[in-house]
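To: structure subgroup
Subject: Chain for Friday's discussion

All,

I'm putting the inputs and outputs inline so they're searchable in the archive.
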Amino acid sequence: MTEGGQISGLAAAVKDVQTVTSSGESVQQLIYGVLVRHATTHADERGDLCEIYDDRWEFTPDPVIYAYFLTLRPGGIRGWSLHSEQDDRLFFAAGTVKVALYDGRQDSPSAGDVNVLFLGTHDRALLRIPPGVYHALKNVGTGDAIVMNLPTRPYDHGQPDKYRLASDSEEIPYRL
């Protein structure tokens, strides 16, 4: 405190809110149906090894039937998009990605909720995004980001299960 208990500009300042517990766990309540499984990277003199998916984890009951990866250039944005039939199971392998989720399901216990996660090299994780949850990715790092997807359905080139909104859409109460 300053002399007399006054701090210049304090009335206009915004106080931080709690984001993690004292043990480092996020206090953010995840959107209903969203799952995050943080990965462990094992390093030795040869390099790194990081397990992406193991059916024994029982992460979801759906088998892995299709997989692809994408790169995201620094500052690049993908989304908003959602699926009506499939889960996305995204693995954040490299870079730093800001992941924004919006629950567009009107009958969901978390309808209208927004989640924001930062995943990538510093915190590799497998993220399940259920149908009806909009998602957007933004590379907030300085190099390319690499994201793998293990969706619950293979891509149907003739009838894609993908719906898009502009990244600045008024339908979503969050800006990347």
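Points worth raising on Friday:
The chain has a mean pLDDT of 93.
The CA atoms of residues 93 and 120 lie 6 Å apart.

D.
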